[in-house]
Amino acid sequence: PEDACPALAQAYARARQEAQALHAFERCRDYDPSSAEAWFFLGQAYRRAGRHQDALTTFREAVRVDPRHADSRVGLAAALLAAGDAPAALE
After folding, report:
1. What angle do CA 62, 37, 56 make, to 5 degrees?
2. What's the CA gap between 71 and 38, in Å, rounded?
3. Cα distance between residue 20 and residue 71, in whole Å
4. Beta strands per DSSP E along the chain
5. Which has the closest alpha carbon to 38: 74, 65, 73, 56?
6. CA triplet 7, 12, 13: central angle to 5 degrees?
7. Which of 18, 33, 41, 56 stands 20 to 30 A from 67 (CA)?
8. Tell me: the pLDDT tens digits for 43-59?
9. Which residue has the higher pLDDT, 1 or 19?
10. Structure pTM?
């Protein structure tokens, strides 16, 4: 089921198995690249892993897939702020 995909990755993250969690989030995205939710969760995982450029790119893709996905828009704004681009974050 669709909900099982992020749940598995989140279980790895709760178990502090970050590499496995990141891989599971990437598999979720690959399973359904048209899901902004999958892109969002992957962006969050990249952000937690300190992979800020990957997070920024991923959040941009999430918003491209679904411009109205609120979590992705917030994630993109946060990634842009972290990159020092406040004007783009406000946009």
Report:
1. 35
2. 11
3. 23
4. none
5. 65
6. 95
7. 18
8. 999 999 999 999 999 99
9. 19
10. 0.90
